[in-house]
Amino acid sequence: MRRSFAIVAGVLALQAPAASLTQSLAQDAGPFAGGKPLTMIIGFGPGGGYDLWGRVVARHITKHLPGKPNAIPQNMPGAGSFTAASNIYAIAPKDGSTMGIIARDAALGPLTGQVGARFDPLQITWIGTPTTETNVCIANQNAKVKTFDDLLKTELIVGDTGPGTGTRAYPRALNAILGTKFKLVAGFPASSDVFLAMERGEVDGICESLDSVDGKRPDWISQKKVNLIFQGGTEPSPEIKDTPFILDMAKTAEQKQAIEFLYAGQGIGRPFVAPPNMPPERVKMLRDAFNATMKDEEFIAEVKKQRLDLEPHTGEQLEALIRKIYATPKPIVERVGELIK
User: Fold this and answer.
1) What pTM does this model have?
2) How many CA atoms lie within 13 A of 14 on its CB side?
3) What does the pLDDT average to over 229-243?
């Protein structure tokens, strides 16, 4: 009996360190213990610029997360990414296992009272952006509109990927602010669908990010298959320095303020977010992993291969920008808000 007891005790003693190690490894894996994956919610359908960025980041960020989990991209299109933003805000687990990418202009939705924007940008967790943006309004070569002056006199039919996106907000607002003559055609899930419609002659153009145009149709601008009508953002892009800057088209101080607020989202870039009210250590975990990904040589190589521009900003920088946007004078917010609904 004594010998049997000694054997059992010895086995338990050997198992104890192993059990302790297993428990320690599980704790080290944090929210990904037990093989739990990272869910990457993408606020648009497959094929567009947001989908591309979401999947590129998902492929590399897991290397910098505890336990190196698998990543599961989940497209959640709807209402210009308001559906995804609202899901991340109210439904997704707050343990660090879920993050996502939403439209750069989605942050303006709640401030301007847009339908479907059921989240608070001041409370949602900003993880970072791999790039800042320049928006370009382009038209097929055979379109009647070839310059900004043409756009003040002649209708240009453009594709619209939903509320909360620049494809809708910029043309609608500029029609009222500057008197442009955009005609919007809604119902496109992603910008890639609008590009196809342009090639088929179903629409004449689109207002979309420069990197999305270059990434999906690299020959359009370089071979002058489309005309660059104008560009918009926080500042002109040196890459297309000869393209008119929309802020320069403002004729009054009020127009300038409205356009500055309208294009504030370009500084937000391709924002990655996570649920609100997360434990501080989990916020730090995701932000640190994102920042490390932006310096990851394999990630940088893939970004270059995809012809994407890498100009990352941290979650803290995005959070500060959001607070600045939300300090915009109320009359300007109300006016632009009414224009982009």
Assistant:
1) 0.73
2) 5
3) 93
